[in-house]
Structure to design on (354 residues):
C-alpha cells in the first residue's frame, strides 16, 4: 500500500505555499484597505479645501486602490503590488507638485523603495535599481518643487499635514522591517529544527548531541550533578526489516522513540544515535536509579505492541549505562556506554548492563 511519503510532493498545493500566499494576501489586503480609506478621507478634505485638481486625483486614486484590492482578491498579488506602487508614486508626485514639499507627501516614496528592495520576485539587480528609483524620484521632487507653495485658507495646518504624512509613511517602513525580521527568524528556527532533529522519529540527531552535550557534560560535571548516559539498541532489528518490510521497521523506530520520550522527564534527552541505536542522557540521577528506570522501560518495551498490523509481534532492546565522573570526557563516556551495550548484546540481549 502506498503511503503519503511515497508520492512526489505537490509543491504548488503544499501547505507552505498556501501559507505564504495567504500571508501575502493579508498584507496587501491591509495596505489596500488603508490606502482606500485614506484616499476617501483626502477626497473630502480636498473637496472641502476647494482644490479641484487634487479632489479629482483622489477619485482616480480610489479607483486604483479598488483595482489593487480586486487583483489581490483574484490572487494576482504581483499586479496588486505594481498598481499600489504606481498609485503611491503618482500621488506623491502630483500632491507635491500642487502643494509643495511642505505637504510631506514625498515621504511615501521611502516605504516604496523598501518594499521594492525586499520584493523576492525581483532579482538583486532589479530590486536595487527599482528601490533606488524611488529615492531618486524623492530627491528630484524635493528639489524641483522646492518653491511650490499652494495658498489656501487652511495653510496653518500644513505643518500638521507634513507631520502626519511623515508618520504615516514611516509606519509601513518599520512594519516592513519587522515582517522581514519575523520571517527571517522563523526560517532560522525551521532550519535549526531541520539541522538538529531526526526526520523519521523527530528525536534529536547525533549532530545535536555531539555539538551541545560535549560542552554541557563539562558543566554538569563541574556542578557535581550525577548524570547517566544510556546507549540503547533494538535487538535483531534486521529481522524486522527482512520479515515484515522496511516500512514496518520505520514504524517500530517511530513508536519506540515516542515510547522512550513518554517514559522520561523533560530534562532528559533522547536522541537517535544512528540506525536502530538511541542515546539517552538522564540528568540528575544516580547509576542505581538509572538502572532501575531503564530496566523497567526495557521490560515494558518487551511486552508492548509496537506494530499496528502485527499486534502480537514483540521487539526487545539492549541497554548500556555509564555514570558521569569528574573529568571524564564526553567521548570516553560514549565509548564506555558502547562497551556495556556490547556486553548486554553478548550476554543474550533484552538486558541492561550498568
Ligand atoms: N526500517 C529501518 N531500518 C533501519 C533504519 N536504519 C537502520 N536500519 C536497519 O537496521 C538494521 C540493523 O541491523 P544490525 O546492525 O545487523 O543489527 P540487528 O539486526 O539489530 O542485530 P543486533 O543489534 O546485533 O541485535 C539494518 O538492517 C539496517 O538496514 C531505518 O531508519 N529504518
Amino acid at each position: 500500500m502506498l503511503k503519503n511519503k511515497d508520492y512526489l510532493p505537490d509543491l504548488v498545493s503544499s501547505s507552505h505555499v498556501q501559507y505564504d500566499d495567504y500571508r501575502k494576501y493579508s498584507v496587501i489586503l491591509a495596505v489596500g484597505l488603508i490606502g482606500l480609506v485614506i484616499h476617501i478621507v483626502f477626497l473630502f478634505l480636498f473637496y472641502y479645501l476647494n482644490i479641484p485638481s487634487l479632489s479629482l486625483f483622489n477619485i482616480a486614486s480610489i479607483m486604483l486602490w479598488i483595482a489593487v484590492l480586486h487583483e489581490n482578491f483574484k490572487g494576482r498579488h504581483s499586479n496588486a503590488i505594481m498598481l499600489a506602487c504606481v498609485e503611491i508614486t503618482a500621488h506623491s508626485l502630483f500632491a507635491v507638485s500642487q502643494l509643495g514639499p511642505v505637504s510631506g507627501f514625498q515621504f511615501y516614496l521611502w516605504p516604496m523603495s523598501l518594499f521594492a528592495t525586499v520584493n523576492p520576485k525581483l532579482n538583486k539587480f532589479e530590486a536595487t535599481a527599482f528601490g533606488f528609483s524611488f529615492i531618486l524620484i524623492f530627491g528630484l521632487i524635493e528639489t524641483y518643487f522646492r518653491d511650490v507653495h499652494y495658498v489656501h485658507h487652511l495653510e496653518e495646518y500644513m505643518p500638521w499635514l507634513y507631520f502626519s504624512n511623515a508618520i504615516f509613511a514611516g509606519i509601513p517602513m518599520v512594519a516592513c522591517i519587522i515582517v522581514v525580521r519575523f520571517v527571517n527568524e522563523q526560517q532560522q528556527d525551521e532550519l535549526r529544527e531541520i539541522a538538529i532533529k531526526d526526520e523519521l522519529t523527530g528525536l534529536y540527531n547525533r549532530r545535536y548531541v555531539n555539538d551541545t552535550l560535549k560542552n554541557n557534560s563539562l558543566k554538569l560535571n563541574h556542578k557535581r550533578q550525577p548524570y547517566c548516559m544510556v546507549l540503547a539498541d533494538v535487538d535483531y532489528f534486521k529481522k524486522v526489516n527482512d520479515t515484515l518490510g522496511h516500512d514496518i521497521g520505520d514504524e517500530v523506530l517511530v513508536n519506540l522513540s515516542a515510547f522512550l520520550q513518554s517514559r522520561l522527564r523533560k530534562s532528559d534527552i533522547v536522541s537517535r544515535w544512528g540506525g536502530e541505536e538511541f542515546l539517552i542522557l538522564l540528568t540528575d540521577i544516580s547509576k542505581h536509579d538509572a538502572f532501575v528506570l531503564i530496566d523497567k522501560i526495557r521490560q515494558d518495551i518487551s511486552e508492548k505492541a509496537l506494530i499496528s498490523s502485527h499486534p502480537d509481534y514483540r521487539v526487545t532492546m539492549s541497554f548500556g549505562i555509564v555514570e558521569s565522573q569528574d573529568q571524564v570526557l564526553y567521548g570516553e563516556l560514549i565509548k564506555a556506554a558502547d562497551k556495556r551495550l556490547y556486553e548486554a548484546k553478548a550476554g543474550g540481549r533484552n538486558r541492561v548492563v550498568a
Remarks:
- The beta strands are 228-234, 269-274, 277-282, 317-323, 352-353.
